[in-house]
Amino acid sequence: MSQMPFFIDSHAHLTSTAVFDQVDALIERAEQAHVRAIVNICTDLVTLERGLELSRRYPWIYQAAATTPHDVEAEGELVFESIATCARQGLLKAVGETGLDYYYEHSARSVQQAFLRRYLHLALECRLPVVIHCREAFADFFEILDADYQVNGRHAPGVLHCFTGTMHEAEEVLKRGWMLSLSGIVTFKKSIELQQVAREVPLSQLLIETDTPYLAPQKHRGKTNEPAFVAETAAFIASIKGIPIEEVAQATAQNACELFNLPH
């Protein structure tokens, strides 16, 4: 009998107000679904404080933090130094999610770009990977990445989380040696181009995530997402690639451990 695969949810917002009141139940269901680690994304001072406490209670839940591109204009200066202090104290496994979002453009593009650079520099200083949100802003993102996030001529490590770009954009991510993370969106019936990306991305550069509480997979669409559902995304990717789910689980877990410096 084959061993049950285990999973790592590389991106969840467990300390979001939308789900924090039920976080223990979510974590219990995640354990039952063989989720062995979760990278929790903190986006402000409240979620950061909750996240650090969560790690004390559940040592297999790890923290990343940054103000999202949506909120940097309103909150970026208020939060940056607290996040930088946590990063310098070794309390974070990554800096993020930071990046650029020109689809909504809730913050001015120039402010988004300035904070992206600041977070990239913080990640370099602390030798942490970055978690990137990028939507309809890939040209500017790659330009900033190429200019501000290299060590000895090579790109420092990171992941494009919840990737929804084109095959060409995926290739640009991969050729920089980065990880590409797929969420429940890949399971949606109309995500034809993203499913092509899933088919082509090498297992060596693939992560899986839920983006809890958002973007539940097709089977649960419209419901609150949770880390337990990451197995469904893994199963869907395995079917697209024509390989066993165990291969997807093992590769994505190993990639997450290496990127975020988690215990194997």
UniProtKB/TrEMBL annotation:
It comes from Candidatus Protochlamydia naegleriophila. GO terms for molecular function: DNA nuclease activity; hydrolase activity, acting on ester bonds; metal ion binding. Keywords: Hydrolase, Metal-binding. This is Deoxyribonuclease TatD. A divalent metal cation 2 binds at H133, H161. The keyword Metal-binding applies. PROSITE patterns: TATD_3. GO terms for cellular component: cytosol. It comes from the Bacteria. Signal peptide: none annotated.
